[in-house]
Amino acid sequence: MNLSKYLPFQYISVVWRRFALFFIALFAVVSLQHFIAEPSLSASNVISSNTSSAIATASVQNGDQLIAQSSDSTTVNYDSLTEEQKALADKILLFAGTFGLVAYIFTSFCLMKIADKLKIPNSWLSWIPIAQIWVMVRAAGKPGWWVILFLIPLVNFVIGLIVFFSIPTSLNKSSLYGLLLFVPILGVFLYFGLLAFT
């Protein structure tokens, strides 16, 4: 029995990559749910306690002078938190740091693969934070001096959109891949993953 006419083997690698990206997205969502606070530590309780402490004024009689706390100070020190709030803050910081590190490693690796596909010299520069902008600009087919435009506030947003929508066209894909960046949390993973591995 010949299975090759029933199973198109040329598409198995694409399907496998899409399953891998799906499981990466699923892992990110499940791990995000793990760090959701318990009902006793809901955000409304924290906000109401912070606003009530900020609005309340502390008065101290010092002779004839009345000293009051400013009602517009809303800063909260880490030391003033309860043990439960400190544990929650530590979990949030740990998750944010881990997620940031995973996102940086994944995007740098994918950017290096994209640069290798486009035969951009020194693709290893995608691992260096500022130098990876140069790799993205070259992958978009733009001149290298566009890196300077990324350092100008507000201009960098427009140039970034141009670059991110131009990279897929350099890979002979639709520029609409750039819309994946607007998907919350997983958009960066989908954008770079699909461009690097498909």
Compact overview of the structure:
By secondary structure, this protein is mainly alpha-helical.
Kindly provide the radius of gyration, computed on alpha-carbon positions and rounded to a whole number of angstroms: 25 Å
Number-wise, the strands total 2
Residue ranges: pLDDT <50 for 5 or more in a row? 37-69
N-C termini distance: 30 Å
Strand content: under 5%
- By secondary-structure content and strand pairing, the structural class works out as mainly alpha
Q: Which sheet architecture does the biggest sheet show?
A: 2 strands, antiparallel
Global outline: elongated
Number of helical stretches of at least 4 residues = 7
- SSE order in H/E notation? HHEEHHHHH
Give the proportion of residues in helices: 55-70%
State mean pLDDT (0 to 100 scale).
75
